[in-house]
Specification:
CATH topology: TIM Barrel
Radius of gyration: 19 Å
Shape: globular
Strand content: 15-25%
CATH architecture: Alpha-Beta Barrel
Structural class: alpha/beta
CATH superfamily: Glycosidases
Distance between the termini: 22 Å
Strand order of the largest sheet: 1-2-5-6-7-9-11-14
Largest sheet: 8 strands, parallel, barrel
Length: about 400
């Protein structure tokens, strides 16, 4: 999932992660420790927050950032044993033109606005796709007003940090306190009830960046408090065998660092192709089933906690044509994935992206060639025969309604 076309890595660079033997061995060793009692996940409250956060450094409260929007109280995460459903949220690339009108609130669930990365001229300042500072997004994208309009209609909001392109904040900003302040600027400005960290490519193996991200999030929690801290999700790549070794290592390090994760969202897309329909669905379900087992180990969930492990899992397909040539996630696959998510109590179902949930106009190709000469899927249409909004309608069926935002 990317925002900077001129710097967008090739599909192979973005979605194919070679598993280094040392990383694999370390992940397996740590994972076995979790199963045998060698690792105890961070103690959390009933709402999924760390019980003992670190103290917030001076100057990081809401007043320090000039926040004027009251922070909403974030409701508790749904419990798998309570019968509550997971939530749906389609990603929105806010830098793509023409812009997707998420503020119209015609799509169910909460939009996942993406991607916040480091400003190219100031590594500790957040920006939208490296193209718009938060202030410039007001004038050029009308983003603050659009978010306010969405909130007035009672919708939840998620914001995603990272992605495949540009510099992820935790990788670029070397000071954990400055990184925490960057996160606070985004949270205080847009008041999301969910924050998502999309960790891809070289960010997956940057252990120091993962540690800085964790430290910064602990500082953010200390400043925001349990009632106002957005729920935290990690989004990582997957294969048909579930989480990659690098992805598992990021999740485990984040948990060991004391960050209470609401869940882990896997990108069920860009496998080995070609595939479509039932074959694409079957591969995604294998990935989900394997990831469920992995998350049970990573979160230290034992026998009788199967439903809790499912509630920690999120699934995000790339609708229509995938970046890998020959791979297509069609409406048949969307129906099957939605049914699986509802029957298993999956915590979250997303899609890449709401911008693409429409047929390609006549004369517009479903694929294009980027600046590196690689073929990739269109950012503004699915490349399949569909009605506008069909994937959103299909994938969101039976999940949370827009008026009841819940992480």
């Amino acid at each position: 999932m990317s925002v900077l076309e001129q710097h967008r890595p090739s599909p192979s660079a973005r979605r194919r992660h070679t598993v280094a033997p040392l990383i694999l061995a370390a992940a397996l060793a740590i994972g076995l420790g979790a199963c045998s009692g060698g690792y105890a996940p961070a103690q959390t409250s009933g709402e999924g927050h760390p019980v003992q956060p670190t103290t917030a450094p001076p100057g990081t409260g809401p007043a320090a950032h000039g926040a004027t929007t009251p922070r909403p109280t974030v409701p508790a995460s749904p419990s798998a044993s309570s019968g509550e459903t997971g939530w749906f949220g389609g990603y929105v690339d806010v830098t793509v033109k023409p812009p997707y009108s998420f503020e119209a609130a015609t799509a169910p669930g909460r939009p996942v606005l993406s991607f916040v990365i480091a400003d190219p001229d100031n590594p500790c300042e957040p920006s939208w796709g490296g193209q718009y500072t938060l202030d410039k997004a007001v004038t050029d994208l009308n983003l603050d007003q659009r978010v306010g309009s969405l909130r007035q209609k009672g919708h939840g909001l998620a914001i995603s940090f990272g992605g495949a392109a540009g510099d992820e904040l935790a990788r670029a900003c070397k000071d954990p306190q400055a990184l925490a302040q960057a996160y606070r600027k985004v949270i205080d400005r847009y008041t999301p009830d969910v924050i998502d960290f999309d960790i891809e490519a070289d960010n997956l193996t940057d252990i120091e960046a993962t540690a800085r991200r964790s430290e910064a999030l602990r500082q953010v929690f200390a400043a925001e408090g349990a009632a106002h801290m957005p729920r935290v999700w990690l989004t990582v790549p997957s294969t048909a065998q579930g989480l990659t070794a690098e992805g598992s290592a990021v999740v485990l390090q984040t948990l060991r660092d004391g960050v209470a994760l609401a869940g882990v969202n896997i990108m069920t897309m860009d496998y080995d192709g070609p595939a479509s329909g039932q074959q694409m669905l079957d591969t995604s379900l294998r990935a989900a089933t394997s990831a469920h087992t992995q998350l049970a180990q990573l979160f230290g969930l034992g026998q009788g906690q199967d439903a809790a492990a499912w509630s920690k899992l999120g699934l995000t397909p790339m609708i229509g044509a995938n970046d890998t040539p020959g791979e297509t996630f069609d409406l048949q696959a969307a129906h099957g994935l939605n049914a699986f998510a509802r029957s298993h109590g999956i915590g979250r179902l997303s899609m890449w992206s709401l911008n693409r949930d429409q047929p390609c106009p006549a004369g517009e190709a479903a694929r294009k060639t980027d600046s590196s000469g690689d073929s990739e899927a269109s950012d503004t249409c699915s490349g399949t025969s569909q009605a506008t909004g069909a994937f959103t309608k299909t994938l969101s069926t039976g999940l949370e309604h827009p008026g009841t935002p819940r992480p």
